[in-house]
Structure formats: C-alpha cells, structure tokens
C-alpha cells in the first residue's frame, strides 16, 4: 500500500536560489518556489495499521524544506565549483574557473551534491528522509518528487530492505 504527501496541499515547499553550472540560461543565479511530493510504499503495520504516520512523514519533510528555505543552494560536489575561501561568516568560490562569488554563510546551504537540479535535489531529499525515518522494516520504497514551481519536477525512488 502507498501513502502520498502532495506538497502543494500539505505545505511542503521552500523558496531558494540556485544555478545550474554551465547551463546557458540557468547558469545564472535565479530562484524557484519548490514543492516537494513524497510517496512511501510498504506494508501496513502497528496499532493503527499505517504504512507510515502522515504526521511523522510531514514533520520530517517540512524540517528538510525549512533547512533549504530562503537560501542560495551551493553544490559542493560539483567538479566545476571550487571553494577558494571559507570562514565562519563567509564563503568564496569560483565556478568554471572564471566566475567569482562571495556570499555570507547565513545566506547559503552547502550541499554534498554534484548539482542543484531538481534531479539532484530529489536524491538529496530522499536520502535525508530515509535517514530520519526510524523503523523501516515494513517499507518498500521512498519516492520524492522535487517540483520547480508547478508542473515540472524530477522524482527519485529509493528502495529499502533489498
Ligand atoms: Zn533553476
């Protein structure tokens, strides 16, 4: 059985700035209102016969959205991004060996991902959700769709207990 969270109606959203390094138009810093949909497939279990408690799944996902909200998303694992200076307050980096950025740390999230496309963000958020779910013996998969606004998104399904 499957349970779903529709990000529009359950308020699983964040607004953030990013760039798609090397892309002709999306290579410039720009923003999206992201919406996150979550699907969990598994066996019903426990006192209430839930696949997973909606409240727990919403709280976990909302916390992840909040950690990304109103920030510039920086893909630290990009081969085209080099951090040139960093202290507690500031980060400086170059992109494609030519574009120089200096941003306050409070305005960024440093992510261990190769890019900040919807595809990579869906993998990141799936992994974070799985990391937060406690007992997963009865679950088959977690799937996360990250939508850049309404109508376009990328989804990632991670199987568990295989
Ligand atoms: Zn974009």
Please, could you describe this protein's structure?
By secondary structure, the protein is an alpha+beta fold. The protein has a single domain, classed as Tetrahydropterin Synthase, Chain A (2-Layer Sandwich). It contains two helices and ten strands, in the order E-E-E-H-E-E-E-E-E-H-E-E. Strands 1, 2, 3, 4, 8, 9 and 10 form a seven-stranded mixed β-sheet that branches. It starts with a strand and ends with a strand. Zinc ion binds next to strand 3. The site of zinc ion has 6 residues, from strand 3.
The hetero molecules present are: zinc ion
CATH class: Alpha Beta
- State which percent range the strand residues make up: 35-45%
Radius of gyration: 17 Å
Distance between the termini: 17 Å
Kindly state the percentage of residues in helix.
10-25%
CATH-level-2 architecture: 2-Layer Sandwich
Q: What form results from the Cα inertia axes?
A: elongated
Low-confidence stretches: none
**Protein structure class:** alpha+beta
């Amino acid at each position: 059985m499957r349970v779903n969270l529709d990000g529009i109606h359950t308020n699983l959203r964040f607004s953030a700035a990013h760039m798609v390094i090397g892309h002709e138009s999306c290579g410039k810093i720009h923003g999206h209102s992201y919406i996150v949909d979550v699907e969990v497939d598994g066996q019903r279990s426990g006192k209430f016969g839930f696949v997973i408690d909606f409240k727990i799944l919403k709280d976990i996902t909302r916390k992840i959205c909040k950690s990304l909200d109103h920030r510039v998303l920086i893909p630290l694992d990009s081969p085209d991004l080099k951090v040139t200076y960093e202290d507690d307050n500031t980060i400086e980096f170059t992109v494609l060996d030519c574009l120089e950025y200096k941003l306050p740390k409070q305005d960024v999230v440093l992510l261990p991902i190769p890019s900040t496309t919807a595809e990579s963000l869906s993998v990141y958020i799936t992994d974070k959700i799985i990391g937060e779910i406690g007992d997963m013996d009865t679950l088959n998969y977690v799937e996360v769709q990250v939508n850049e606004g309404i109508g376009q998104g990328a989804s990632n399904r991670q199987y568990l207990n295989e």
